[in-house]
Amino acid sequence: MAGSGDPRGLVDKILSSRAFSERELDRIFKLLCKHTHPALTGKDGSEFIRLGEAYKLAKRRLGGPAPQVDFDPRRIIDESGFAGELTPRGALFLSLYRWLASGLHSHRIRTSAVLKERNTLIIRTSLYWAERYDPLFADIFISFNRNLFTGMRASEELKVDRQAKRLLVSGLAWFLRFQDTGRPAAAQLARDRLAYARLLLGSERSRRAAGRDLCVWLLGELENPPEVLLLDGR
User: Fold this and answer.
1) ∠158-217-229 over CA atoms, to 5°?
2) Three-state DSSP state, 85
3) What interhelical angle do 116-133 and 46-62 show, nearest 10?
4) Of all residues in the chain, what percent are helix, strand and coil, respectively (each to 5)?
5) pLDDT, average across residues 189-202
6) Cα 62 from Cα 197, distance rounded (Å)
7) Do 115 and 55 fall into the same domain?
8) pLDDT at position 5, please?
9) Does residue 154 share a domain with residue 92?
10) Measured between alpha carbons, how far is residue 110 from residues 49, 201, 208, 226 in Å?
């Protein structure tokens, strides 16, 4: 098929799918799954999610039934042990808690074939709640997963990158602890680490910009009251 190397372009064509029959649409969808599934591309799954949404919309436009989607945006949240009233902001932070606790900041964990289903579910849940709380964060999170920690490179910048990664991950952990407990000391620890990581990631290069933007967003959220999620029942 012409253009099969350009999944984004083909997804856009699906959105105007009256140019295709339902049978052709199904064939295009199956083909694009091979080009966008995170287990096959090593990417963060955002294109695969967008493909599924575009396919459902196209099916509705053609008058056919929408495919069944086995996705529960509360599943990951419920597994965290949270039993209180849920807001999009709180759900996003709980999703990030699962992202961190599952080791998805590690390139090795994120690319594990054994964990691919679980990893995709956690990232998809995070993006689902990000879109409902702050779509800007969804873009930052996609870029962060795609660009920042894509394996090791032999360069003078390697030491700085490692230090920035440790600080950012530690800052996120303290950020989530602040959301969990509301303790000012946790907020200050998060602030210190994220500010230093942002300084180290100050380069304008796109790969580092992904981490820098995440630091800036988290620092901004620290100016707001915490969710006080009380994951451990304190």
Assistant:
1) 110
2) coil
3) 70
4) 70, 0, 30
5) 94
6) 49
7) no
8) 47
9) yes
10) 17, 22, 19, 28
| Whether residues 193 and 92 fall in one domain | yes
pLDDT at 205 over 70: no
Residue 139: its H or E element: helix 135-147
Dihedral pair phi/psi, residue 79, rounded to 5°: -70, -15
DSSP 3-state of 202: coil
CB neighbours of residue 73 within 10 Å = 17
| Domain residue limits at 35 | 7-62
Is the confidence at residue 37, as pLDDT, over 50?
yes
Same domain, 99 and 179: yes
What gap in Å lies between CA 59 and CA 68, rounded to an integer?
12
Q: How far is residue 227's CA from residue 38's CA, in Å, rounded to a whole number?
A: 31
- Any idea which residue has 């396919």 for tokens? 55
Q: Are residues 102 and 216 in the same domain?
A: yes
